[in-house]
Structure formats: structure tokens, C-alpha cells
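Progress report, Aim 2. The chain analyzed during this reporting quarter is listed below.
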Amino acid sequence: MQQPDIKVIISGGGTGGHIFPALAIANAIKSARPQAEILFVGAKGRMEMEKVPAAGYKIEGLWISGIKRELTIDNLSFPFKVLSSISKAMHILKEFKPNAAVGVGGYASGPLLYAASLKKIPCLIQEQNSYPGITNKILAKRVQKICVAYEGMDKYFPASKIILTGNPVRENVLMLDGKFDEAMSFFSFNPSQKTLLIVGGSQGARSINKSILAGLEKLKAAGVQLIWQTGKLFYEEAQRAVAEVGYGQARVFDFIARMDFAYAAANLVVSRAGASTVSELTLTGKPSVMVPLPTAAEDHQTKILKPW
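Predicted C-alpha cells for the chain:
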């Protein structure tokens, strides 16, 4: 077995908006350096602990979560979680001995990148949004480079560290040509009918889900084929509703693994305006109705749509 020529640790997650750019980075590294060894570090109980192994990469979990606005037991335990996570991150770094550490935002990237900076390991963070998350804001002073997707990020980060790269996206989304027939077969759809794709983000969007629920009869009557990613919390309710109205041309998923097929099939996309989704839709060129998350920090989902 050949020894790795470079070892990289990638940390972060919580949502698809962090996880899929992280996987895209890992895949790009492996494409450029096939002998590279990559280890992910995520937060226990979060989506990355499932999605990263499914993509073929190893992952370690930290006992870490965010701070809630209200007073909770989780908030009281937060300092202990941070100390525990930094301690475990130190152990992981000692065992894995990475040449570089990459943070993509999310709970786990804070303790891991902080520990890596203490050990003088070269560190980089990747910020997907036009308004940075609190973890990346804190880490900005400790890392060597900051990769961003939008101009004007020197309002939040040291200008000397910024590299305008755009967002890493899933490789299969870049290659939709020739996939229409395969997508129709995958969803058991009629190629002559129009298809609507609903994506509320990796965890679903309640307001979008409720709106689609209210319009199921009209969509069915219009002969629209429906691909609906609901998120786990709304999945069973959506399934029941589709069955009750006899909507045979609706496909309900808590999470769509083959987004390339979903994009290839879609004539129109209705979606949250998460940064990774906006980047993917820009590349696919699909007509889209974007529904920004109104509670997003600084209303950044609305702001990133302005160039459109």
C-alpha cells in the first residue's frame, strides 16, 4: 500500500450547504493528488456523520453544538462541549498528522481549526455565503487563507487573506448533458410532461413545504410531474398527502441523493436561496423561483440574489 503524499483534514457541516462544498473540496484534492489521505471531522449527531461516509470518506465526530438564543441545558453545557471538542481535536491532529486543515463552517470547524492553528498546521477556511457565519468570523484571525464566493468580503475578513474562488459544487451537477433520459427513467416520469423540482435545502423548508401541500391538487390537475425534497421532519406528512390526493406523478424524498438527475429532469426549480444551491442553479441554468430564508443572518439569502 502506497503512503499518502499529502494528508488533509476537512472540518465542518451541519447542513448540506457546508457538507457538499466540503465533499467537493475533498474530491478535487483526490483528483489532483490520488494518493492524498483525507479525514473529515464533524459534529456528532449532525448530517455529516451520515453523508460523509456515504461518499466514501472517514469522519470523526466532536461533541459540539451551537448556542441557542433561549436559556437551555445545551447552552449551559456549551463551554464543556468546547473544551471537550478542542481536546479531542488535539488528539485527532496528533494521530492523523495533517499537512493542512480546511474549515467549511459549522459547529465542528471551530474547535478543529483552533486546535490546528495552535499546532501551527496551515489552515484555510471556505466561506460559502455573502455574510460569514460566526465560526468563520472567529477563525479568520487564526488561518492563513480565506476562500470566498462573493466580492466585498473584506468587510468581514482581512483583505490580505482573501481568495475569490466561488463555491465548490458537486461534480455530478456540472455534467447534466445527456442525463435527461436517464433522469426520466430514474423517476419513472413521462419525458413529454413538465417537471417541477422543489428543494427547501437539505433539511427542508416548512413554509415551502406547506405551500406545496396546499397546492397539490392544482399541480396534479395541471399534469405536472413533481420531485419534492421535504427534509426529514416533513417527509411522512408529505408522503401521506400525496397518497391521499392520488398524485401518481409525485416523487417525495426526505433527501435527494441524485441531485444531478433532479436538475436534469426539472423544467422549473423552486428553492431556498442557500449559497450552495444558488451556485448550483447558476451552473445548471435552470429557471428558478428562489425563496430566501427570512431569518438568515443579515438577510444574506436575499442579498446574494441581487446580482441575478
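The mean pLDDT is 90. The domain at 7-168 is CATH 3.40.50.2000 (Rossmann fold). These observations will guide the mutagenesis work planned for the next reporting period.
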